[in-house]
Design goal:
Elements (H helix, E strand, L loop, with lengths): L5 H132 L4
Length: about 140
Amino acid sequence: MIKVDVSVFIQIANFLFLVWAMNVVLYKPIRKMLLQRKERINTLAQNIENYEKEAKEKDDAYASGIKDARIEGQREKEILLLSAQNMEKQLIEKINKKAQEDLVQMRDKITKDAENVRTSLQNEVDAFAAAIGQKILGRVV
């Protein structure tokens, strides 16, 4: 049979003391470090989420800025194209006007030159006709 004597109570006290000592020496510090680690991980996770949000906001702002810049660039391009087209029309009109003036001057000059040539040829034809008539007839006509 089992005899219950003082040694059982000493063993129970020893067991309780060891549980208390291990709790103070091992379990509490380990639990404390685990809690600190969990807090640090949560803080880091929160920081990561904040950085991701900031990065997304910056990326959206960057994309929006690029889109706005492209739209503004397209507007400026259209304005420059319209300005260039207007300048082109003005230059073409100026060149056409100059060409028309030059054409009128050339026609007038050609007409004058043709008239001068016609009168000089008429004079020469008359002189040749008189010379031919004189040779054929043998006398001065």
